[in-house]
Amino acid sequence: MKFKSINFTCKHCGAPLRFSPIHNSLDCEFCGTQESIEESVERIKEYDLQEALAHLKHHHEQEISKEVSCSKCAATFNMTPYSVSSNCPYCGTPAITNFVKEITPKSLLPFHISEKKAHDLFKKWIGSLWLAPSKLKKFFESNQKLKGYYLPYWTYDADTYTNYHGQRGDIYYVQVQKTVMVDGRQERRTVQESRIRWTPVSGHVSNSFDDITIGASKTISNTILDNLSPWHTEVLVPFNPKYLSGFDSEEYTIGLDNGFELAKVKMTHIIRQDIRDDIGGDQQQISHLSTQYNNTSYKNVLFPIWTAEFKWKNKMYNYAINGQTGKVTGERPYSWLKIAAIVGTLSGGAGGAVYVDQHPEVIQEIKSISLEYLG
Ligand SMILES: [Zn+2]
Ligand SMILES: [Zn+2]
After folding, report:
1. What separation in Å is there between the alpha carbon of 114 and the centre of ligand 1?
2. Residue 151 CA, ligand 1 centroid: distance in Å
3. For 188-244, what is each residue's pLDDT tens digit?
């Protein structure tokens, strides 16, 4: 499919404008003009989920790459089928194209963290990590390139009603006679021991969920997308392509229906906690629960994320920064030398280092132990 890209140009000099997270406006890098983005009074709406699911066409969308022609230099280049904006690889001009999916974002969170700020935050983060190889910190100073993405998310609202069955455990104490050794002689003593009494229980809990966010992109791992939350969705602004100018952006590749299944998992996690509170007692078991989801609604939104990947000793690592709040998350390499040193210290000898070298399978385990140990 062929697309013609659009870009926004400076009133004064005609150079391309890019969205600036610092000024919250379109900025001209050439003459310094700032063009504010008109504020929309449009309300951010929630859309009925059941209605949307019933009307979505379940045809297989062809995954064809987009052939985009640059509005500035007329060169053509390819973008992935789910890309909506990028920069022309030939002249660097922002290139914004059309959405092709049935549901398009009606609101977004603009970038608030600038690239420089994101870079500083990341450096601070890697510097604060225990067990990161020392050379890595230097490597970042010189090699770090960040990419700004608006990535698609679903937000879901639901009122839930959950019936449950389970058991409530109450601890009580009993006196028992025990034989103990005192000064090398056996002696009968009365000691207190705890027991637990289980009582069958059932009941229901009601919950109201607002904006459960689910990443709808496969560009970054779901774990990373999840770890970037919380997102402050109360400051969503109506969609305007000007916010995308200069950034890469994507449409959803995880559908509305699958996204809702993931949202149910998140909601169930909270519902289970509520059931435990409802059961009370010292311990709780939940044997069965069934949840009705009422008044379900959704939004398709774009969230700003700075990402980068880096290669360290032949392995790729990804990390990301929440472009609204500056929260950093990611995968990171560990220094086996530092870990080995700690294992050696923990086990009271230098043997640990040798053991780790010869048994890579224990590394995973050691990582968690060491990290816990270091708090
Ligand atoms: Zn200008
Ligand atoms: Zn171009």
Report:
1. 20
2. 29
3. 989 899 999 999 999 999 999 999 999 999 888 888 888 999 999 999 999 999 999
